[in-house]
Write a structure and sequence with these properties.
Layout (H helix, E strand, L loop, with lengths): L2 H12 L7 H6 L7 E4 L5 H8 L6 E5 L6 E3 L12 E7 L8 H11 E10 L6
Parallel strand pairs: 1-2, 1-4, 2-3, 4-5
């Protein structure tokens, strides 16, 4: 089963395009933190953070740009070192060509004494 089929199945099982709404509560994101969502898709999580009153900078990055979503690759982030307090890869490392390089880039743009989250739904297919 391809990653795209796995994502579609997870969405069907959860009854949502993908279950992003529980993440902000689970992660307890600082309200003023600068957050890039790498592999943002259509930007649902960032829009939800805005609706919840998140006041920090929210940046969406995806290979296919869209409204409020920058075009870019996870393996070559176009941000300076130590730019963000939080880096999110939400169900996106499945889709990159070189996940080790993407993780390296995420760590590079993460500020010292910050934290990292990579959410991935676990399921045996």
């Amino acid at each position: 089963m391809t990653v795209g089929h796995q994502d579609a199945l997870l969405s069907d099982l959860s009854g949502q395009h993908w279950p992003y709404r529980p993440l902000p509560n689970a992660l307890d994101l600082p309200i003023n933190s600068a957050i890039p969502d790498i592999g943002v898709g259509a930007g649902q999580l960032l829009m939800y953070l805005h609706e919840r009153g998140h006041q920090g900078i929210r940046v969406g990055l995806n290979p296919v740009p869209g409204p409020a979503v920058l075009c870019g690759q996870a393996e070559a982030l176009a941000f300076p070192d130590a730019s963000f307090e939080v880096v999110l890869f939400v169900r996106s490392l499945f889709h990159v060509t070189d996940s080790a390089q993407a993780l390296h880039e995420g760590i590079r743009v993460l500020q010292v004494e910050s934290w990292w989250s990579q959410y991935r739904a676990e399921r045996t297919w």
